[in-house]
C-alpha cells in the first residue's frame, strides 16, 4: 500500500502540470468565466476527457498477486487492475462544469478504461459515470451562484468520489475476496492522492482567477482615470484633433500596441504599431472596422487574418474594435491593437467594452 503513494503522486503531478499550463492560456482563463454556456461545456468535456484518458494510460498496474506490476496498459490481463488518477480528472470536470460535463467525461474515460480490459473492467465504467454525475451535482451548486467550490470542499469531494469507486469495486467485481484485497491495497493511497490533487487543481484555478480579478480591479481604476482624461476630447466630437489626443491618452494608460479612432469612413488617429500604413485622413483599411461600424457590435479577434489589413508587413495580430454611438447611431469606432495575440485577455475585452459605453453618448 505504501509503495503506491509515490507513483500515484507522480501521476497527479502530471495532471497538475497540465492544469497549470492550461490556466496560463488566456483562452482557458476566459472559459472559466463562461462555464454555463453550451460551447464552453463541450470544450471542457474535450479537455477533461483528454486528461482522463492520459490518467488511464499513465496508471500504476496492480497484478494478480496484488502487487505493483510493470506490464502494459493497453491490453490488461483478466486479473490485473490499474491504480490511476482518472477519478481526479472526472471529479474535477464535474466540479467545474456541472453534471452535463461530468457525465460525458465519465462516459468517455469509462469507455476507454473498459476497453483496456483487466479485472471486471465494466466496474470502472459504472464508477466513472457515477463519479461524473455526483461531482457534477456538487459543482452545480456552485455553478448556480457563478462561483467555484472552496479548496477544502473540492478535496472532500475528491476523497468521497474515490470512496464511491471503492464501493463500486466491492459491489461489481464478482470475486469478493479479490475485490476486498484490491481495496485494502489501493484505497488509502488513492483517496489521499485524489483529495490532494483535487485541492491543488482547484487552488490553481482559484488563484489564477483571483489574480485576474486583482488585475482587473487595478485596471478599472486606471480606466476610470482614463475616462476622466479622454471624455472631454470625445465630447468635442470626432475630429482629427480630438481623436489624436484621446488615442494618445488611451495608449499611455493601457497595455496595448496601438490605438486607433475612426469615424464611419476614415481613420482619424492611429498611435503605436503599424503607424506607417494606418495613416489618419485615409479611408478605413481593415475589414474588421467596417464590420463593427456596420453591425454596431464589439468584435474581438486573435488572428492576423481576421483583422483584414491588406498591408503585407502589418505587425498587428489581435484587436478589440468597439463601436462609438451618438443617440444610438454608430458614428465611428475605437480600436485596441496587439502585436502579440496572447496579450489580449478577458480583462482587456471587458475594459474596452466599458470604455465604449463611457465614450458613447
From TrEMBL:
Annotated GAF domain residues: 246-357
Q: Does the keyword Transcription regulation apply?
A: no
* InterPro entries from the UniProt entry: Bact_2-comp_sensor_kinase, GAF, GAF-like_dom_sf, Sig_transdc_His_kinase_LytS_TM
**Domain Signal transduction histidine kinase 5TM receptor LytS transmembrane region per the UniProt entry, residue ranges:** 26-206
State the name under which the record lists this protein. Sensor protein LytS
Q: Which UniProt keywords apply?
A: Cell membrane, Membrane, Transmembrane, Transmembrane helix
Q: Where are the transmembrane segments?
A: 12-28, 40-62, 95-115, 122-139, 151-173, 185-209
Q: Name one GO biological process term.
A: cell wall organization
Q: One cellular component GO annotation, for this chain's record?
A: plasma membrane
Q: Where in the cell is it found?
A: Cell membrane
Pfam families per the UniProt record, alphabetical = 5TM-5TMR_LYT, GAF_3
Give the way it sits in the membrane: Multi-pass membrane protein
Identify the PANTHER family for this entry: SENSOR HISTIDINE KINASE YPDA
Output the Gene Ontology terms for molecular function.
Answer: phosphorelay sensor kinase activity
Recorded hits in Gene3D superfamilies, A to Z, give: 1.10.1760.20, 3.30.450.40
Amino acid at each position: 500500500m505504501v509503495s503506491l503513494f509515490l507513483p500515484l503522486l507522480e501521476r497527479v503531478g502530471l495532471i497538475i502540470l497540465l492544469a497549470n499550463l492550461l490556466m496560463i492560456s488566456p483562452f482557458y482563463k476566459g472559459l472559466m468565466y463562461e462555464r454555463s454556456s453550451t460551447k464552453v461545456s463541450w470544450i471542457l468535456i474535450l479537455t477533461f476527457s483528454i486528461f482522463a484518458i492520459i490518467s488511464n494510460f499513465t496508471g500504476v498496474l496492480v497484478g494478480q498477486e496484488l502487487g505493483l506490476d510493470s506490464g502494459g496498459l493497453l491490453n490488461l490481463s483478466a486479473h490485473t487492475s490499474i491504480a490511476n488518477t482518472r477519478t481526479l480528472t472526472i471529479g474535477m470536470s464535474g466540479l467545474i462544469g456541472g453534471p452535463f460535463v461530468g457525465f460525458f467525461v465519465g462516459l468517455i474515460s469509462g469507455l476507454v478504461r473498459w476497453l483496456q480490459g483487466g479485472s471486471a473492467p465494466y466496474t470502472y465504467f459504472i464508477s466513472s459515470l457515477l463519479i461524473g454525475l455526483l461531482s457534477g451535482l456538487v459543482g452545480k451548486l456552485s455553478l448556480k451562484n457563478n462561483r467555484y467550490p472552496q479548496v477544502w470542499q473540492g478535496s472532500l469531494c475528491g476523497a468521497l468520489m474515490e470512496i464511491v469507486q471503492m464501493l463500486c469495486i466491492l459491489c461489481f467485481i464478482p470475486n469478493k475476496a479479490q475485490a476486498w484485497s484490491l481495496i485494502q491495497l489501493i484505497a488509502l493511497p488513492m483517496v489521499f492522492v485524489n483529495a490532494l490533487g483535487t485541492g491543488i487543481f482547484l487552488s490553481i484555478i482559484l488563484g489564477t482567477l483571483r489574480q485576474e480579478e486583482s488585475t482587473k480591479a487595478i485596471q478599472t481604476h486606471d480606466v476610470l482615470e482614463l475616462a476622466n482624461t479622454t471624455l472631454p476630447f470625445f465630447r468635442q466630437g470626432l475630429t482629427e484633433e480630438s481623436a489624436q489626443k484621446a488615442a494618445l491618452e488611451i495608449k499611455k494608460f493601457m497595455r496595448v500596441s496601438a490605438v486607433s479612432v475612426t469615424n464611419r469612413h476614415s481613420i482619424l488617429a492611429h498611435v503605436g504599431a503599424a503607424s506607417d500604413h494606418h495613416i489618419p485622413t485615409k479611408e478605413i483599411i481593415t475589414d474588421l472596422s467596417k464590420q463593427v461600424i456596420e453591425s454596431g457590435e464589439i468584435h474581438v479577434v486573435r488572428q492576423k487574418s481576421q483583422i483584414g489589413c491588406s498591408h503585407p508587413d502589418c505587425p498587428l495580430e489581435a484587436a478589440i474594435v468597439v463601436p462609438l454611438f451618438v443617440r444610438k447611431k454608430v458614428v465611428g469606432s475605437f480600436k485596441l491593437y496587439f502585436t502579440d495575440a496572447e496579450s489580449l485577455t478577458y480583462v482587456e475585452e471587458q475594459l474596452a467594452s466599458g470604455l465604449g459605453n463611457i465614450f458613447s453618448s
